[in-house]
Amino acid sequence: MAVVAVAALALAACGGGSEKSESPATTTPTASADGGGGKPAAFPVTVEHKYGSTTIDKEPKTVVTLGLSDQDAVLALGVKPAGAVDWFKEKPYGKWPWAKDKWGSTQPQIVGERDEYNIEKIAALKPDLVIAQYSGMKKEQYDTLSKFTKVVAQPKDHPDYGAPWQLMTQQIGKALGKDAEAGKLITDIDARFKAVRDKHPEFATKTLAVADSFEAGKYSAFTKTDPKSIFFAGLGFKLKPEIDTLAKPGWNVAELSAEKLNVLDVDRLVWVTSSTEANDRIKGEPLYEKLKVHQEKRDLFVPYQDPDIGAAFSFNTVLSIPYAIDEIEPLLAAIK
Fold it and tell me: Which phi and psi angles does 231 have, rounded to 5°?
């Protein structure tokens, strides 16, 4: 439970050493390597990112993903990463329900935990390309990796862990020579979000906040740049700007004391938690009991796992979004 709690704060993503890993796998294309439509992929390609730009001269044969959820877009584009980082230990290398079929029997090498990378393990895989979109990769790490492989770091002009899923998918698609396929994935997911907004126009009239609590008296509300909030904005809900003003610069979360819980008195409040104990503790907080959102039963408690609803909208990727929508839409629609 503690591991899930730490993992949930993806903005931090700053701890832990490398884990013992499964036997390494080579990157395996699961679709044609022509970039889609039977046409040769357009290499070389140049991808701009936080630390400059990277030119990829030919189709990568061995890919390593260092972003916490980057493997999803790579898998969706028909490539199985040879290496990935650990985030949720209960689901090594991101083998969640929405990605399970894409991985098949492949087990990539675990090359780090969150933003602590095992450079030796990465080098041993001899990757042609390292992708680090949903990451907090440091310049020193980028420089070290760039000595032996091509590296596409996190998007520029966005805080770490704060780029839209569309942009990260575009970056990954371009790096793999699969621009058109990435564009199709984005269009399809945008259509899923629009279908929900069309079905539930009332969502657009409601303010929503996403929160969590890992210990008594301490609460977290996620800002507009966190994937969880981005997901619910995609469903049509309005986010609360005050949460952004309470967050530390560069953080995707505002830390709240019990006295600040009034910030969460919105039309719809989604708690994404790791246990029934946490739910009971939150509900039993005297200052929380006074909030109208709680008194009128407009708060929703969803788990990270079993079912994996919270994990799905925490990832907020082209693979996890359909799963998240299917799970959360009826729960939100049931709130009156």
Answer: -60, -50
pLDDT of residue 111: 94
- Identify the band that residue 21 occupies on the pLDDT scale cut at 50, 70 and 90: very low
What is the chain's mean pLDDT, rounded? 88
Contacts of 320 (CB under 8 A, 6+ apart): 69, 72, 96, 98, 99, 311, 312, 313
User: What is the signed CA dihedral for 185, 186, 192, 196, rounded to 10 degrees?
Assistant: 170
The answer to whether the CB of 212 falls within 8 A of the CB of 294 is: no
Alpha helices (H) in 1-129, listed in sequence order: 2-8, 70-76, 97-103, 119-124
Per residue in 230-286, pLDDT tens? 999 999 999 999 999 999 988 999 999 999 999 999 999 999 987 888 899 999 999
Taking the C-alpha atoms of residue 190 and residue 20, their distance in angstroms, rounded to an integer, is 38
Helix, strand, or coil here: 301?
Answer: strand
CA distance 162 to 198: 27
Least Cα distance to 58 among 76, 70, 45, 67 occurs for 45
**203: nearest Cα among 75, 331, 30:** 331
The answer to whether the CB of 90 falls within 8 A of the CB of 5 is no
Note if the pTM is more than 0.70.
Answer: yes
Question: Are 240 and 232 in contact, with CB atoms under 8 Å apart?
Answer: no
Strand segments, DSSP code E, in the chain are 28-29, 45-49, 52-56, 63-65, 79-80, 83-86, 109-113, 116-117, 129-131, 150-152, 207-215, 218-222, 238-239, 253-257, 268-273, 299-303
